[in-house]
Every structure is written in structure tokens, then in C-alpha cells.
TrEMBL record:
It comes from the Bacteria. InterPro entries: Acyl_CoA_acyltransferase (IPR016181), BioF2-like_GNAT_dom (IPR038740), PEP-CTERM_FemAB-rel (IPR017469), PG_Glycine_Bridge_Synth (IPR050644). Residues 166-299 form the BioF2-like acetyltransferase domain. The lineage of its organism: Bacteria, Pseudomonadati, Pseudomonadota, Alphaproteobacteria, Sphingomonadales. Pfam families: Acetyltransf_6 (PF13480). This is FemAB family PEP-CTERM system-associated protein. It comes from Sphingomonas tagetis.
Amino acid sequence: MNAPMLTRPLTLRFANLTDPIDRARVGAYVHEHPDGTPFHLPAWSAAVAKGCGQRSHYLVAERDVQGIVGVMPLTELHSPLFGRVLASAGFAVGGGILADKPEVVRLLADACWTLAARLSCPSVEVRGGPLPGPEWTVDDTHYLGFGRQLAADDEAELLAIPRKQRAEVRKSLENELAISVGQGAADIAAHYAVYAESVRNLGTPVFPARLFREVLAEFGSAADVLVVRHAGEAVAGVLSLYWRGTVYPYWGGGTAAARRLRANDRMYFELMRHARERGCSRFDFGRSKVGTGAAAFKKNWGFEPQPLTYYDRVAEGAAIRDANPLNPKYRLQVALWSKLPLAVANRVGPWIAKGLG
């Protein structure tokens, strides 16, 4: 009778994001894992590192013959204003640990915490996934996710939108608005200009333009920008990711004229149409904070909110990093930023935003 096989030991390493073969192996694991998201892909970590100058540390757990059994994308974020933090995943609304078994979750979580100490990061933020361990604080009350299935065609999509919002969409369809979708230089520039103005009006700094370019370059045909124009001028735009039949409108916004033209309503309806044509069956409207206008807007479109679960771990004597512009203590700064000339906000904003993550 043969002796029982001993359990193969687990090993940990960091993925080499510059090695195409290693990236392909990690990407394949993420694609096959049922809880994988675009933010777990090596492409996301690489784009963030190049686009914002923040270091990526991509943990991989392996069991020799079996291969990869778990991953955890991490971004080392440093900001002169908001301090240091290790985030999974940086600049993402999701992330966290992907693993085959609980023992792998624990191994990755412990390695993450050890890495944070070595990097002098007093706290770690994990955005989704399984609970890393009993030492971690659970936050499931601040953020909501919004997603639903796409309808079969435009008319069915309209009927899936609640009556009041449906009327706004129908009015937007009557306006003389031109739609373009792609990755051309003109559309990328137009999207960034619109997005930058939008976030300035909200009182927050804009991310570096290079982050958007790197995400588009890394994701290739799995990302694009949709731009809405009126009389030749861009008034709304959104950068979207496409992943396993789901469209993720990620960075979107509109100018001051967009509201009058209902350009944002048109933008999301056109994106639904475009996503169907690409073969998508689901629309992920992203994350919003509880009680905000953004959350109400998504509910008006017929999206039911679902709580998002995040985790934090903080070194003894330290505090959880708070870089959220919705915090009341930043009310004055937000109000002042929204009044800045756009040229000034676009020049200073990326220096601040690249450390927010």
C-alpha cells in the first residue's frame, strides 16, 4: 500500500510585471477565478505604477505542481499630504485576495502585513475579497456597488429604467449630440479635458493624464473612451473597461453644459448600447458612498445598491489613513478647489491625486 502523499508546501513570491510570461500566468489565474476583477489583473497594477509613479507589489502564492493558488495585487501609495498606505488595489474600487483555499488567504494576508511594515506603511487597505484575518477591521457601511444585467435592445433598456429617469434619457436622445468611441488621441484628450473639469467642479484634484493613457494602453481592446459632443465640443466622456461580459464605466464626467444637454444621460445609455454590441450582458455602475448624489443617480437608473466590504489593518499607535474628500473636515478645501481656475487645478491636481489611490 502506498504511503499517503504529503501536502505540497506553499511558496510566496512577487510577480514580475515586466515579464510577459509571468504576467500571462497570473492573468490566466485571475481570469479563471470566479471572484476575479479587472483590478486584479497585472495590467491594472502596471498601469497604476507607470501612470502615477506608485510602486506595485504583486504577491503570488504557488504550490509547485499545482501552480498559482492565490494572488494579491498591492500598491505602495505615498502622499506628502495623506501619508503612506499599502492598498489592494491602488486606484481601484475593488481588489483584495484571490485564493483557492482559506490557508492561502491567511498566507497572503500575513505576507501583505509584513511587507507593509518593511515599507513603513502604517496601514493597509483591502478593497474586497475574503476577510484577511481576525486582526482586520471590517467596513461594510460606507460604500455601495451598483450593477445589473443589460437588456436585449434599446427599447427594452429604456423600459428597464424607472419612469422619471427614462424620460430624461428620451429627451437626451432628441438632442443633437454626436457620439464617438475609441482610443484615438483626439478622444483620449477630449475625455481627459471633460473629466478634469468635472472633478474640479466637484472640488477634487484630477488624476494624472498618464494614468488614463497607461490604462488604455495596458488593457488594449478591453478598454475605450466614449465621448459625447455638442456642436463639435466635448461635453461628456467616460473611460470604460470590459471584463468577462461586463462593462465597467470607470472614469466619467461632464462639463457645466452637460446637464442642460442631458449629455451624461445620453453617455450612459450609449455606453449600454455599445457594450451590448461588444457582447456584454452586464453593466457595473461602480462604487458610490452611502447617502451621496452619485448613489441616488445610479438608483434612479434602476440599479439596486449592494454594500461593498473593505478591510483595514493599522499598526499600533497609528490611525487609518483618511484621504476621502467627502469627509466633513475637508469641506473648506473642497469648496475652495471647486473655485480654482481650471488651468491651475489641472496643473496642481495630478501632483496631489497621484498619491490618493
